[in-house]
Each structure stands twice: as structure tokens, then as C-alpha cells.
UniProtKB/TrEMBL annotation:
Residues 20-88 form the HTH merR-type domain. Gene3D superfamilies: 1.10.1660.10. It comes from the Bacteria. It comes from Streptomyces axinellae. This is MerR family transcriptional regulator.
Length: 115
């Protein structure tokens, strides 16, 4: 009997990093233009994956970053500065998450949190 194909319990569309959206759909979802998405790509805020045909594909996580960039640009922030702000915000959030994990590990090991 041939081996069974692995079952995928999680739907890829539930994955924030799954590149599910085309450039046109992504731009529509955040209320921007494809040119805006290209510009934030050039500023290295997001790097979309490419389909086999070379088309840009965006994840929900990337769309959240793009939407935040659009908000800042709409408020008058230059696009390069908006991208840098978002990168720093994202790094700060990641550092906070790691800090909380480490604090949880430390207090979970029997040591006091302030030790």
C-alpha cells in the first residue's frame, strides 16, 4: 500500500506569512496603488514573494506593514521615513515579545522575576 500524503492540519490562509494576495488585490485591500507597494518594496519595508510567473505576492503580515506605511504617508511622512519608522516599531515589538518570553521562562524556572 503506498504511503499516505502528509495531511496539512493548518490552512495556509490562516498563516500570516502565506503570500496569498496579488499586487492588485493587496493594493485594493489597503487603499493604495500598486506603485505605492512597489515604492515600499524599493525602500525594503516589505519584500514580496514571487509566483512562478514572477508576479509579486503579499502576505497578511506584509499588508499590515503596508497599511501602516500608507497611514504615515497620508499624514505627511515621507515614504522612506515611514518605512524606517515601521521597521523600528516592528523591531521594538519583537524585542518586547522576546523579553516577555525570557521573563516567563525565568519565573517559570523557580527563580524570582527580579533575580
Amino acid at each position: 500500500m503506498p504511503p499516505e500524503a502528509p495531511s496539512h492540519t493548518a490552512d495556509p490562509l490562516d498563516d500570516d506569512d502565506y503570500p496569498a494576495y496579488t499586487m492588485g488585490r493587496a493594493a485594493e485591500m489597503i487603499g493604495a496603488t500598486p506603485a505605492f507597494l512597489r515604492a515600499i518594496g524599493e525602500a525594503r519595508l516589505i519584500v514580496p514573494l514571487r509566483s512562478e510567473g514572477g508576479h509579486r505576492r503579499y502576505s497578511r503580515y506584509q499588508l499590515r506593514l503596508a497599511a501602516r506605511a500608507r497611514e504615515l504617508v497620508d499624514d505627511g511622512t515621507p515614504i522612506d521615513a515611514a518605512c524606517r519608522i515601521i521597521i523600528l516599531e516592528d523591531q521594538l515589538e519583537e524585542a518586547r515579545r522576546i523579553n516577555e518570553e525570557l521573563r516567563g521562562t525565568r519565573t517559570g524556572s523557580g527563580e524570582p522575576a527580579g533575580a
